Predict the structure of Ribosomal RNA small subunit methyltransferase E.
Amino acid sequence: RLFVPHPLKAGAGVAPTIDQSRYLTAVMRLSVGDEILVFNGQDGEWRCSLAEAGKRGCVLKAEEQTRPQAYGPDLDLVIAMVKRGRVETIVEKAAELGARRVRLTQTRRTNVDFVKLGRLDAIAIEAAEQTGRLDVPAVDDPQKLDKILDSWDPARRLVFCDEGGDARPMIEALAETGPPAAILIGPEGGFAPEERERLRSLPFVIPVSLGPRILRADTAAIAAMTLWQAAAGD
Ligand code: SAM
């Protein structure tokens, strides 16, 4: 399966990137006339045929739609910046577990400031191609947590993974409130007291525990999204 940001309609020509062309010919060993599934995040999934394969890349031809456009549940994963490698894992798992959007955030104790993010987009696309989803999660540039909270739509419940120790188990909270619109995971150093205080004062925030042990941010993100997916059912 390939993600190609091109309009997909019967007969349309589709030009994969050079890397994708190489993947089609050298890895998948496709030849002219062979088929590949393509999606663009808007027009559903299409069966395409390899029309040309040359040094300057391949050209596909859109044949027929195999699946109408569909989107997974509308979950934002708000994740404090942690080491690059772990952020890459988190983006990949968020795409696999159905998050619609990954929002990187800077908190009092985030101590990494690599900025993005082209690589993270490529990881999101690759994971979306592999999972069979028809959209690619957006990965937003890092924003300060206060700024995200200031502009938050209070109709969207935010599950705050709080390792502080006295929060309810996430599974119990979800049984009561239903799947949230967003999950917030803190940095390696955890949330500062004043951040925790602000978060717990907000009506749309649901503090939850992911168990008695302190998880790394990437483990916490995967655990929380898995519980959310179990509650959301899709
Ligand atoms: N403050 C932690 C400590 O004392 O080592 C470090 C924070 S932890 C590495 C990173 C984030 O994962 C936390 O801010 C929290 O959002 C989430 N997290 C980790 N373990 C958790 C747990 N048992 N329950 C809820 N959230 C957890």
In short: The CA atoms of residues 127 and 222 lie 14 Å apart. Residues 217-232 form the longest helix (16 residues).
